[in-house]
Amino acid sequence: MLPLCSSAAEYALCVLGHMSNDRDALFRSSSLAQSIGLPSEFVAKILVQLRQGEFVTSRRGRHGGYLLACDPAQTSIMEIVSFMDQARDEPDCAEKAGEATGHGLNCLLHDYWKSVHSLREEVLGGHTIADLAKSCSRHSKKLNPKISV
Q1: 103 alpha-carbon distance from chain centroid
Q2: Per-residue pLDDT tens for 61-86?
């Protein structure tokens, strides 16, 4: 099966889906990681990227953490995947780069990859983080990642 996105994008979607279940809560990276079942270091890196994309904001200090900055009902899964997978947003193909293959032929799979890419955009663009939140609430480890202030 062809992957629709990288592992980093998939984990970013898990983080955002989990956070959107309690939109106004402040989340610690380590608690999110524990709740989702991912390594803390990896979740911390994902959160930094999501902050750079303005999908989350952060607060420093003793009572610091991360807040959801995007509207889960208005943010498509494709927006997150495109942001996280900027370098691999389209399939590699010799024709895409305007080159021919070594045999002087255009990429034989170009039209097929183009169709797959269009379908991927259509499907992932038609669903939001709010849609994912429903799945995340069913699959989480039932730990409370929120910070008690």
Answers
A1: 38
A2: 888 899 999 999 999 999 999 999 88
Furthest CA-CA distance within the chain: 65
Number of domains the chain contains = 1
Residue 114 lies in a domain: no
CATH code, 63? 1.10.10.10
What's the rounded Cα separation, in Å, for the pair 15 and 47? 8
User: Which residue do the tokens 């750079």 mark?
Assistant: 52
> Which residues constitute the domain of residue 132?
7-89+128-139
Residue 147's pLDDT band (cuts 50, 70, 90): very low
Q: What are phi and psi of 48, to 5 degrees?
A: -60, -45
Tally of CB atoms within 10 A around 20 = 24
Q: Does residue 30 belong to any structural domain of this protein? A: yes
Model confidence pLDDT, tens digit, residues 11-39: 999 999 999 988 889 999 999 999 888 99
Please tell me the pTM assigned to this model.
0.75
As a whole number of angstroms, the distance between CA 19 and CA 144 comes to 11
Domain membership flag for residue 118? no
